[in-house]
Amino acid sequence: MKKTINIILVISFLIFLSLIIWINYLMKHNVGDIAYDSRIDDSSFVVCNENRIFQYYSVGSNYEGERKAIREKIFTELKNKHLELDIKTGYITFRFVVNCKGQAGRFRFKQVGSDFSKITFKASEIEKLKSAISKLNNWNAGILSNGTPVDSYCQINFKIENGNIKDIF
């Protein structure tokens, strides 16, 4: 009887240990993490904790003035850039990190058609959008419940209809 109980305890311990290791791995490696890439990222942009970058909605990071201010600043920035997105319809999503100091960096983007199939806009036009987003400088860093500022992921979506930006959200 003791032998059976010991076997059950050992197996339970191994299952528990495996679960702890698996949960720890999942917490450190989220889908969509943006790792530093020296080929495309600005080396002067530094996150405060590489191992703990939160989602914007879980720590309250946001832009001062919210969506309205983002739209106004981006449209103002793009006004003189003569943006030419071809005659395509779809979405361009920029995802990036806002560090604990309220600075944005590590910009990545995805492009999809209105049916969510893969499409491609001109690289030069994507760069104009990225430049406009990178000039947004009123980010509020995410804050933990204990008041500690933290790094977080944020995103900005562009809805494109027939080559024109119809919405930014």
Itemize the secondary structure elements and their pairings.
Layout: H1 2-28, E1 53-55, H2 56-59, E2 62-63, H3 66-78, E3 90-98, E4 104-113, H4 123-134, E5 139-140, E6 142-143, E7 149-161, E8 164-168
Parallel strand pairs: 1-7
Antiparallel strand pairs: 2-5, 3-4, 3-7, 6-7, 7-8
Briefly, what is this?
33% of the residues lie in helices and 27% in strands.
Give short descriptive properties of this protein.
two-stranded antiparallel ribbon, 2 domains, 4 helices, 169 residues, 27% strand, six-stranded mixed β-sheet, elongated, alpha+beta
Radius of gyration: 21 Å
Q: How many β-strand runs?
A: 8
Shape: elongated
The helical percent reads: 25-40%
From the N-terminal CA to the C-terminal CA, the straight-line distance is 64 Å
How many structural domains can be distinguished in the coordinates?
A: 2
Low-confidence stretches: none
**Class computed from helices, strands and strand pairing:** alpha+beta
Order of helices and strands: HEHEHEEHEEEE
> What is the mean predicted local confidence, pLDDT?
91
Share of β-strand residues: 25-35%
Helix count equals 4
Largest sheet: 6 strands, mixed
In words, what does this structure look like?
The chain is an alpha+beta fold. It has two domains: 1-30; 34-168, no CATH class. Helix content is 33%, strand content 27%. It has helices spanning 2-28, 56-59, 66-78, 123-134; strands spanning 53-55, 62-63, 90-98, 104-113, 139-140, 142-143, 149-161, 164-168. The strands form two sheets. Strands 1, 3, 4, 6, 7 and 8 form a six-stranded mixed sheet that branches. Helix 3 (66-78) crosses helix 4. It is elongated. The model has no long low-confidence stretch (mean pLDDT 91).
